[in-house]
Amino acid sequence: LQLHHSGHYHCRGRVSTAVPPWRESELVTVTVHRVPVSGVSLWVQPPGGQVALRDRLVLSCAVATGTGPLSFTWHREGSEAPLGTGPHLELQHVGDNDSGHYHCRVS
Fold first, then answer.
1. Which of 78, 38, 86 shows the shortest CA–CA distance to 59?
2. pTM for this predicted structure
3. For position 67, which CATH number holds?
């Protein structure tokens, strides 16, 4: 379901021997809600985040529940500027200055 599916619904059927032939059910109200984001988890490749100088590091972020569209931003401790967007952050050739604590934000 999507948010735009909220509304009032009923069913209608035809009974050929009845007058009038169309019969309708009672109205039912359906309200679709957003599910808040929860269960955000992060994993890293290589495992443990131990990567050799100039090797590749991939960080991945996942959400257990939440309705979209989801927005991902990547940050390193001590800096507010986002490093990237999307569920994955890839650092191709890590250097000494790439060491630190990383996290993703999901909204």
1. 86
2. 0.69
3. 2.60.40.10
